[in-house]
Amino acid sequence: MESDAEEEAVATPAPAAGPAAGRLKGSPELTVDADMREMAKTGAWSVSSCKAGNGVAALRDDNLDTYWQSDGAQPHLVNIQFQKKVQLQLVVLYVDFKLDESYTPSKISIRAGDGFHNLKGLDTVTWPGISGESCFCVARN
């Protein structure tokens, strides 16, 4: 999966004995049903480039004062690789256009596949000036 913005959480159905319903870490407004669980921590994260101190750790630390900052030619990518197939239901991104309009993405593309070279587009969203969390439903029937 790749995206050119911060990825806060991804979720997938949990086993029958999964965690109780609740909120995703870092997301006080997003309530998740009992049959979903956060999967971001189970993936191996990488970014296409980053400035020193603004890499994956800053992207994932749940601190709105830190962030990923790319340092290279576009497109800027966030990759999450899982050891086995997972069925993603949604991706939650936090972006803040008001904080930094020159570097906040205006277009996000979410892709998935069996490997880096066979990714298929699930969703592409273009928005002007968003600030806050955005949820992308990536579940397919």
TrEMBL record:
Residues 1-27 are annotated as: Disordered. It comes from the Eukaryota. PROSITE patterns: DOC (PS51284). InterPro entries: APC10/Doc1, APC_su10/DOC_dom, Galactose-bd-like_sf. Keywords: Cell cycle, Cell division, Mitosis, Ubl conjugation pathway. GO terms for cellular component: anaphase-promoting complex. CDD domains: APC10 (cd08366). One of its GO terms (biological process) is cell division. SMART domains: APC10. Residues 15-141 form the DOC domain. Residues 10-21 have a biased composition (Low complexity). Belongs to the APC10 family. This is DOC domain-containing protein. It comes from Panicum hallii.
